[in-house]
Design goal:
The strands form three sheets. A seven-stranded parallel beta sheet has the order 3-2-1-4-5-6-10, with helices on both faces. Helix 1 packs across helix 8, helix 3 packs parallel to helix 5 and helix 9 crosses helix 11. With 341 residues, the chain is an alpha/beta fold. It starts with a strand and ends with a helix. Helices cover 33% and strands 15% of the residues.
């Protein structure tokens, strides 16, 4: 079939495009041209800004894609432009969403009260507070000021003429991960730290992860299977580990002889404060996509970790780059805590 991918050049997108082409589909990627991606020569490309989708409607009509995959719908306006542009052209929209739609995420951010039962299903309660990252915006027109996947999903799934499919992603890691999810712990392992100290609530915290190629395969299944019409799916690894277990697994892959130590909060410096509520776990049940679409991981966990480690070692983050993990200690503080314990 003919498939159009919006924003398919950054991290997850190229893996999705490669998977679709391997499956024999004709793929066109619409992107700004600011990210160089390793796409095969038979992938068609259209350069443009997704905030001006309607200006390319004639080109999209020429392509006549059966399914449109939007990798980057951040705002309600993004979703409205998407549906208005492709209504009458495509037969289905697949929009990539996130686990951050759930009320559990609002609890983690400290914006909502209580603790939500886990694992989360596709029918678990959504956040009551919209725009989770609004306070992080540096200027009024920042897209994160209006970011909310809840609104995106509502628009995509409520169009009477153009059916939608939603794929909610976990924390994704792998080669190309601009958040460098594995790097902070890997750096400590490579520096031969004998111990990595975690505050005990962090050590026990559990969240859902997914390796980039596995996530891409799940998205491709949702794109190609008509049974996905009108459905919402989770993608996540079956096994759910605590953060202490996850770091230990990374260490095992590289032969680390150290260990992860869990320490009570009162042993930490008084100025050290968690920015998230770790009483709320954040992992999901991925049974639906496995049963309905036959999804299963194509890359085993140990191989996924190995590939990610190899990439992280050759692509360290730039200085002062914001990383996904911010709660690991500096070495001096870690040593001081261990000395007192």
């Amino acid at each position: 079939m003919k498939i159009l991918v919006i924003g398919g050049t950054n991290f997850i997108g190229p893996s999705v495009v490669r998977r679709l082409t391997v499956m024999g589909h004709t793929v066109t990627v619409f992107h700004r041209g600011k990210t160089i991606a390793d796409l095969s020569s038979d992938v068609h490309q259209i350069l443009g800004d997704r905030t001006h989708l309607n200006e390319f409607k004639n080109k999209f009509e020429e392509i006549s894609p059966l399914v449109v995959v939007d990798m980057i719908p951040y705002t309600e306006q993004d979703a409205l432009g998407l549906m208005n542009t492709f209504r009458g052209i495509a037969q289905r929209i697949v929009a990539i969403s996130s686990m951050d739609v759930y009320r559990a995420y609002g609890v983690i951010l400290g914006k909502e009260s209580g603790v939500v039962p886990v694992p989360l299903t596709e029918d678990s309660p959504l956040r009551q507070q919209l725009y989770p990252f609004r306070e992080m915006s540096t200027k009024p027109q920042d897209r994160f000021d209006h970011y909310d996947k809840i609104l995106v999903e509502q628009v995509v799934m409520s169009d009477p003429e153009l059916p939608g499919t939603i794929v909610r992603l976990p924390m994704v890691y792998g080669p190309g991960d601009f958040r460098h999810r594995l790097y902070p712990c890997l750096q400590r392992i490579d520096d031969n730290r004998p111990v990595i100290v975690l505050e005990e609530s962090i050590a026990q915290w559990q969240g859902s992860y997914g390796y980039v190629e596995n996530v891409a395969y799940a998205i491709a299944l949702a794109v190609c299977d008509e049974r996905a019409k009108g459905r919402i799916y989770h993608v996540a690894e079956l096994d759910v580990f605590s953060e202490a277990e996850r770091i230990t697994r990374v260490g095992k892959v590289v032969g680390w002889q150290g260990k992860v130590v869990s320490v009570p909060k009162e042993k930490f410096p008084s100025e050290w404060k968690l920015t998230i509520n770790t009483e709320q776990d954040w992992f999901v049940d991925s049974t639906r996509i496995r049963q309905e679409l036959g999804y299963k991981e194509v890359i085993p966990l140990e191989e996924a970790l190995k590939r990610t480690i190899d990439w992280e070692r050759t692509h360290p983050p730039e200085e002062n780059q914001e990383l996904a993990v911010s709660w690991l200690l500096d070495y001096a503080t870690e040593d001081a805590i261990l000395t007192k314990s």
